[in-house]
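the two lines:
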Amino acid sequence: MHSEDQALPRDVDDQLDQLRRAIDAIDHDMVALLKERQEQVEKVLQLKKAHGLSVYHPAREENLISEKRRIGRAVGLDADYLEDIFRRILRQSRVEQTAQLARRGIRPGATVLVIGGCGAMGRYLVKWFGEAGYRMRCLDCEDWPQAGALCRDVDLAILSVPIDSTPEVARRLGPHLPEKCVLADVTSVKQAPLEAMLACHPGPVIGLHPLFGPATTSMDKQVIVATPGREPAACQWLLDQFADWGAIVLKTRATDHDDIMGIVQALRHFATFIFGRFLYEKRIRMDEALEYSSPIYRLEFGMVGRLFAQDAGLYSEIIFASPERRALLKEYLDCAQSNLEMIAKADKDAFEKHFRRIAEWFDPFSRQALRESTYLIDKLIERF
Amino acid sequence: MHSEDQALPRDVDDQLDQLRRAIDAIDHDMVALLKERQEQVEKVLQLKKAHGLSVYHPAREENLISEKRRIGRAVGLDADYLEDIFRRILRQSRVEQTAQLARRGIRPGATVLVIGGCGAMGRYLVKWFGEAGYRMRCLDCEDWPQAGALCRDVDLAILSVPIDSTPEVARRLGPHLPEKCVLADVTSVKQAPLEAMLACHPGPVIGLHPLFGPATTSMDKQVIVATPGREPAACQWLLDQFADWGAIVLKTRATDHDDIMGIVQALRHFATFIFGRFLYEKRIRMDEALEYSSPIYRLEFGMVGRLFAQDAGLYSEIIFASPERRALLKEYLDCAQSNLEMIAKADKDAFEKHFRRIAEWFDPFSRQALRESTYLIDKLIERF
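prediction for all of em together
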């Protein structure tokens, strides 16, 4: 094949130009349609809001997707292709709907105090509540002399301080809070903070753990765990507010939360840390490794690299949050060590036997994971 | 908010219906445009092929995307949204173009013998070469008595047998091959197979390692490593063939390949295996863990689950491929173990010190990984 710089017969050049102009015109129409669609969806949303109808219908979405797949097959387009395009279109209207809802809070005008409002998560909360029409106040280290004034007539106080200081900060804050005020925290362990909040404030108390960081631009499908403390009915509006922003609210007991998060957060992050540390100790040339990485390996290394682009303090808090967590991590290292003999003896049979037993136990999650990650790899190929 | 089942004023119902019909009509037009675009792209492709022009232009793609972002901003559509839509459209035309190229091989009519053609990877090769117009033959265990006839006038012989048997199979095959025949293998280690092939066949020899499995439907942006053995010019058409199918061909020395793959494949898979094994030993309730998982954790668990949906034998071959690999894995376990004291002492300072040192070393890969994985998480949210 020769390069396109070489001279081409004049008419071929013309034909190519003409085809490219036709494609550009199609693209132009497509953008116009997307814009028109957005406007129609906006009208539906206004109508629904005016009559108090819920805006998101998973079932209607799935019907629409099936219908598009069917049409795609009928006209000779790849069904997966059409599904991808329309999933993206539907997602956009979901994001815009939640953005709209965010603009009108559930209790606009209510006063919200964020303790630790200058931290990354604190600023994030101030932004979301502020944009939804709440009156915002912050209390940071230097503001304790004014604590009484800052707490006056507050409807909601959210503790957004490091895990270790949450109980102590709650104890300092409690005496200043109005009795009807909702007291909440956003730390990633729940037992100790919840107990401290209950002990220092006689009114409504709820523990929250947003499973997402301040880098998240949309709360769409992000999980927030809620561990009720006292007067759940008085706290409900706060959960509704997060749900309106698009988050999935899961209620559970503080002890159950802490157990599960030991696995979901602490263990997973620790395993990733260990892997990153080994790459560092061996001074592996990452650029070289990536060059030889097909998309799936690129994604695997990406999950490791991602950790180290984030805050060391946050991860050490999550990993070292409690003696139970540390015991779990020690167990993990012991379990890892138990593979040594198999490696030393090059015992393929033992490996395969373990592998199959684990695979059987993982099923059907493993097949679902294969499907989901294959889909993502396609997305990675599309973009990078 | 009340449910949609409740009675609504008649006119609201009518208005909603009307808006929904308008949206359906827009979607209908969109599908028609996508179909029309596909037809125009097809004409460009035919014209380019007729005049020997290369079909894929990364620079033209990037220009098109920038232009769409600009237009999006101008008409009041989210630029990222338009970029996503058009990336997906461009990808589809890339995939269709490579599918077309696949239909016309670089040396159609040439005879290709796949040794181990009944295995998963063997069948995959037979399918791709066969569809590209090559004359296909297979040689499996039971066919050795006919080896002479099967090898007659063969232009390319590809060994697609387990790593351990590749050298032995090469020795059996060699004497039957025509001197001009290209001999290649597709095993995931390269030193021993390449040496065995060079020793048994005096003609052109090349080692190949496709970094993708038979489950991959498109080779678009998949990596294939080539380790030249003898007469590289005579082997070039084979590499060109994989490139035409969309794969990225990387040439390197067998020793370098094996070193890098120890990290990229063996270590990464082993670390994932260890993690999965621990979840199993602790009988972690995966459904519960997933319920509490925000998209990023879902992706992390997905990468673990994915491993166990695949072939135990393949992974044991990769992990136990050589004594060097096993030494590497032992080193990894030792390194993991070195974190024990930090955990036992709850030494946050040590953790953060290590973390920051590793983070510095990882940079800028880590920031890029954060960007890429954040993009993927958005895709995961969109779909599941």
